[in-house]
Amino acid sequence: MIDTLQARIEALEIHVAHQDKTVEDLNAVILDQRETLDRLTRRVNIMLTRLEELEAAAPAPEVKKPPHY
Question: What are the tens digits of pLDDT across the range 45-69?
Fold first, then answer.
């Protein structure tokens, strides 16, 4: 009986060790994705600012009536 319990405890310890490794791996992926998302968010904000500046500097379109009027 003691051998059976010892074997079950060892199996559980192995299982927990694998789960800990999986959690660590997933955490590393999440941190990498967060850095990527932060970088992309900054770049999009820069592009939006540039677009707003270009739109403000662009001449207004001429309002012409179509030829059939």
Answer: 999 999 999 999 988 888 888 777 6
